[in-house]
């Protein structure tokens, strides 16, 4: 029996069957390649679901974590610590926000963003009956608050009842948003590029119109940058590309590049009327090890000009996918921004994914018919060429 099969069998016996895992075991990574325990190599265009932006086995990242482990891993938020102070300063600099709260995951960042918005409206109106506008096909996480703003029945169905405090508008349809605004609306939450919902970028007029609608009605704009942020679109955060700023924003995924850390951040106007001591907390949130990762990630993003690299290679990436699109009838369209790309298919994405895996390429889906490509942000042209050659072979065999 291969080593991989042994781990698969043991995992299947004891892990809760909450995932349909691929029959692949990952043991280690190097650059943009992953290896299984038996030595099989995979070119990685999934990055642990848009997480590992900087490439695997990154010596400076590993050293920064080891150094922090030897100092201290955890302190709680009852005391200050150096990594958290600098991570907060760094995060506010790259996001343009004024204040940040670190969490352990994306969904917790969304919980904090929702609570911040509700508290802001409560402080202003002295009432707790406010509504949030979210979008169809959105994804904001799996905890109950985040699920309440996730516009996909498939994720929510079994876990109701859902009260009427969240309303869903149609993405890229400003009139559908306007129709839902009333005096109880406290926030509008959206992804600048919808991720799980199928890699759909917001149109500039739409997202700028939502910003204006918020300004006119003292509604807070919450932008979920958990997947589209941290350089993925070629801007540090996707909203920069639209020339707008949120009142509250969330980050996670690539923020720690593998260490579990997320954040919600806000402008001073929001912070002044929002959470105060006692309103929110987290035992682990922003612990020294997680924040050491954040600091090293941001340091490398800046010193290696990761966003510039994404912008310089986006044309090559899009051209490769466009070529596949014109060569094969089963590919309906390419869409995306920067290194957050998708091919919409006439067939199930899972067939393509399995065949690509056999050929040594990891890609994932974003919905049943959408092939999602979210590689580490440090890929070079040779990796784009190799991805294209493998997908070419896979589509020819279908
Ligand atoms: C992944 C994701 C989340 C949830 O993050 P977790 O860390 O899995 O809780 C929320 N919003 C968006 C846009 C995401 O892509």
Keywords:
398 residues, alpha/beta, Aspartate Aminotransferase, domain 1, Aspartate Aminotransferase, domain 2, 2 domains, 4-stranded mixed β-sheet, binds pyridoxal-5'-phosphate
**Average pLDDT number:** 97
How many distinct helices? 14
**What share of the residues does DSSP label as strand, in percent?**
15-25%
Tell me the strand order in the biggest sheet: 4-12-11-10-7-5-6
Structural class: alpha/beta
The CATH topology of the largest domain corresponds to Aspartate Aminotransferase, domain 2
Rg, alpha carbons: 21 Å
Assembly type: single chain
CATH top level class name of the largest domain: Alpha Beta
What is the makeup of the main sheet? Answer: 7 strands, mixed
Query: Could you name the CATH homologous superfamily of the largest domain?
Result: Type I PLP-dependent aspartate aminotransferase-like (Major domain)
Topology, number of strands: 17
Give the overall shape: globular
How far apart the termini lie comes to 30 Å
Helix content: 40-55%
